[in-house]
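Could you help me review a protein record that somebody else here produced? What it holds is a sequence and that sequence's fold in token form. I have pasted the whole thing underneath without changing anything:
=====
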Amino acid sequence: MNTILSQALQRFTQNYISAWEQQTGLPPASVDLYGIPSPCVVRTGENWVYWEPQAFPIKDAHLNKVATALDISLQDDIHHFYTTQLAGDMKATFRDITLSLVQVWNEEDFIRLQENLIGHLVTQKRLKLSPTLFIATIDSEIEMISLCNLTGEVILEKFGSQERRVLSPNLASFIGELLPVVELQE
């Protein structure tokens, strides 16, 4: 296990929870995850769910199905990023970018995530683009934050194009710079 990355992710998650508790007196809440089962659920509201992170339930979990489907090796960091914990997506800022850090909510979500990563990589292969693995969404419909599978850098990329901007040299550094945003995601 990549302890540096896992520790950075767990530290950010705790900062995120603390920010929610300081501003609302409650754990993080999500409208999007309402009604979807997860061991993370600690309480439900009228049309939202309150959550806390949980240990990833699958022993020795990895994204090897993604790697096998595309016949490529994946950066180690992406395996650890998606298998350190179960949690809701977390809103944050990275410098001047507001984003939503993608997380795995339950075991079914882990399967869906892998299918989405495969679809993303297949599209890139078809367009003859170097492989990336998304880790966060932004408000733009055509841009996302991804891990470059060749270099391990975190990039802002325009979907379906070569347009990419390096944000951080690696995933642990990227997560280390994130600042939590408390906002009920609808």
Observations:
- Residues 44 and 50 are 6 Å apart (CA to CA).
- The longest helix spans residues 3-24.
- The chain is about 35% helix and 25% strand.
- Helices lie at 3-24, 64-70, 76-83, 107-126, 171-176.
